[in-house]
Amino acid sequence: MDGPSNVSLVHGDTTLGLPEYKVISVFLVLLVCTTGIVGNTMVVLVVLTSQDMHTPTNCYLVSLALADLIVLVAAGLPNVSDSLVGHWIYGHAGCLGITYFQYLGINVSSCSILAFTVERYIAICHPMKAQTVCTVARAKRIIAGIWGVTSLYCLLWFFLVDLNVHDNQRLECGYKVSRDLYLPIYLLDFTVFFIAPLLVTMVLYGFIGRILFQSSLSQEAWQKARQPTGQGEGAPGSCRSRSKGSMSSRKQATRMLAVVVLLFALLWTPYRTLVLLNSFLAQPFLDPWVLLFCRTCVYANSAINPVIYSLMSQKFRAAFLKLCWCKAAGPQKRTAGVTASSYSAAQETPGGTEKMQLGSSEASGPTAAGSLHCQQELHFSAL
Fold first, then answer.
1. Do residues 64 and 111 make contact, with C-beta atoms less than 8 angstroms apart?
2. CATH classification of 19-312+344-377 is 3.90.180.10, yes or no?
3. Are 76 and 83 in contact (CB under 8 A)?
4. Residue ranges of the domains in the chain?
5. What is the pTM assigned to this prediction?
6. Distance between CA atoms of residues 55 and 46, nearest Å
7. CA–CA gap between residue 318 and residue 311 (Å, rounded)
8. For residue 158, with 0-12 CB atoms within 10 Å meaning exposed, 13-18 middle and 19 or more buried, which class applies?
9. Rounded Cα distance, 212 and 227, in Å
10. What is the pLDDT of residues 78-115, one digit of tens each?
11. pLDDT, tens digit (0-9, with 9 covering 90-100), for 104-160
12. Phi-psi region of 210 (alpha: psi -120 to 50; beta: other; left: phi over 0)
């Protein structure tokens, strides 16, 4: 019986007797998986333990981190033992459970990416509506729905895989029925959990980019019109400096999430393409080095997101530093990290989104109207 090596992230005839293959595969997978497990665990911890990190977008990032942890543990680590030993060592229950959790992590990660893209679209393109729609409570309900529905969907794999014995008595977690019967399932997974989310995110980020570009132009025009009244760029508490900071923060958050989506598409394309190709071939293409490359790309996708957060988000970077050196780093370092990550005081509203504080020096009349316009411009969901 054919094994599911063109589908599963672990199983299959991928272990060569060549020492160099074993060394490279074990070292590479262990390096990527260890980095990813540590990084995604830190993401979960900093969001759960830091009150100022409790935002709708970060809730989806926690969901993505948990899904990536499942992929790394259920797919990456068993791949190491598969390379070292050369056969399946986790028994029948391990075959069912590991396959189930592989697909659970994969599918939840794509749904989480789609969810934070939709949230980002509403927060930027419909900022006033976002105050009631993009809340932490609603994000938690959506995440619970994603995990619940995906968990039920992935139960299908309990009936599709089984433990097989080859002629050389080597155990393999493989197909339970003929491989031809799995094509509709692969096509459904490929369409629902890869193609559809990517198409939707591309369209939404197109709208987001247009709104941010238009906001920058209208913001400059409005600020120039306000300068003759004495409220220039350098005026204390001026709307221009605060509005400029708001726009910069929104662009930074959107740019970071767009990079997450882009890397998801790039790193998953080799493996998804190989799976789709092998689903139509009578004799699957199972070159061990090609499979190692495709699988390593998948593991790298699950491991790289915390690195992106650290490089592109000042708030995450400060939170990571505080988590790592909360006692060793003195108050000065923590203050410097917070100062670099926030250009003005921000507070969480009951709706779950954040609104910039305009200060106590707001005037009445026309100036107050201008402040209201500034307040609307400054609404955003911060990371």
1. no
2. no
3. no
4. 19-312+344-377
5. 0.77
6. 12
7. 11
8. middle
9. 22
10. 888 888 887 788 988 999 999 999 999 999 999 999 99
11. 999 999 999 999 999 999 988 888 888 888 999 999 999 999 999 999 999 999 988
12. alpha
